[in-house]
Here is the input.
Amino acid sequence: MEKREFKHEVYGGIGQLTKALANPHRLEIIDLLAQGEKMVEAIATEIDVSIANASQHLQVLKQARLVTIRKQGHYMFYTLANADVFAVWQALRGLSISQLPDVEKVIRDYRTGQGALKGISLNVLIGKLERDEVILLDVRPAEEYRMGHIPNALSVPPGEWGQKLEGLPTGEEVIAYCRGPFCVFADEAVAYLKSKGYRAARLDEGFPDWKIRGLPVICG
Amino acid sequence: MEKREFKHEVYGGIGQLTKALANPHRLEIIDLLAQGEKMVEAIATEIDVSIANASQHLQVLKQARLVTIRKQGHYMFYTLANADVFAVWQALRGLSISQLPDVEKVIRDYRTGQGALKGISLNVLIGKLERDEVILLDVRPAEEYRMGHIPNALSVPPGEWGQKLEGLPTGEEVIAYCRGPFCVFADEAVAYLKSKGYRAARLDEGFPDWKIRGLPVICG
DNA sequence: CAATTATTCAATTAAACTATTGAATAATTG
DNA sequence: CAATTATTCAATAGTTTAATTGAATAATTG
Here is the structure.
């Protein structure tokens, strides 16, 4: 094999893979599937496109081997193909925050608009959990909590804050985590908690970031 | 700002960034610029396209803030904008090796075709260097060596193996490194060294992987 | 077995991307 | 200042991508 032919194969292959990622909806799908498997309709609803369109995007991701399918009845459950897919998304996310002023600004504006301000990092959370200093809330939908969450996290799904937060000790610091830095459940939860007099902050990263570090995860 | 508008900004921004990466030539440029700054003509020659075409691809990368320019006379030196850009490339590279059978196969075939076989990892190299067990060769072009290399590495640029390898002690193991896993300089060097009776292997990763880990680097 | 439902396929149109070509800038040299 | 050189710009044509629509599969339910 010639040297140029070799390069053509290699960079061409990675180019195709990158093209499959290079679409806002598909990136949002990747971000969503990092939480665990989802079926087509749920994905379409979540990312706000027609089912046919979501299906087409999923075909593109499938063809690029970025997602895999589990079939059950006539439901198709899509998941990320492996941890490396999330690692790429994580790197892209990081690059966008460091290099795209707009993205960084939009996030900051949105958070301050919600009264949420600065979050804490995964490393800081780990320290606080070791010293047993915080109450940890998983504010993602119940189904995502069920499929995997951080040990000792309480499930407080969106829309159920009223009931679930009864009897939470007011003295202690509360930290809410959700899907990731672009997920707004945690911002909304923190805003609500603050309005109730709690000392609250969000985790900058999300559950998948915890998981990919090899930290312990509770399922079910 | 509405939730959907927020998502539109964020995923849209990352989509544009990813689109700028999603081209074989541009990925090859990223891989090349990870070695250090280069001017347009050198890039065009290296990736085997016309100068006008290379310039256009560089404009795309520049607009996406993936590269920056240093102007000197009428030479334009392009470099990666920051370490996060390399981190994305590194993640994509890793994903392609784990998920694309073709890419993995092409690399394996090419290496065994060169008689080079399996390389060693950066972690293993670090151990061997600590125990002073190996002779380390930087087999990239002299200019890239000059702009930054691993401490104690000898510069043995392509085409100068005959002269440079005189007087190398034959008993010790020799490890050659180059630009990265898709760079074939190291494979060719290892094949040559083996033909001369040396015990030789290549480093799987490249110099930028060493550098991004924060390990010491010699410039000049 | 017919009706329902989740998902995919096919066809269309509008938009974006790619490589090529030759001309235009702008810094340097004689 | 004219000639040279490195790089960029502009226009073009061919290809690929995206969203929409409605029809086609294929599993499930009554």
Summary: The longest strand of chain B covers residues 199-206. The mean pLDDT of chain B is 92. Residues 19, 23, 25, 49-50, 52-53, 56-57, 60, 73-75 of chain B lie near DNA strand C (CB under 10 Å from a C1').
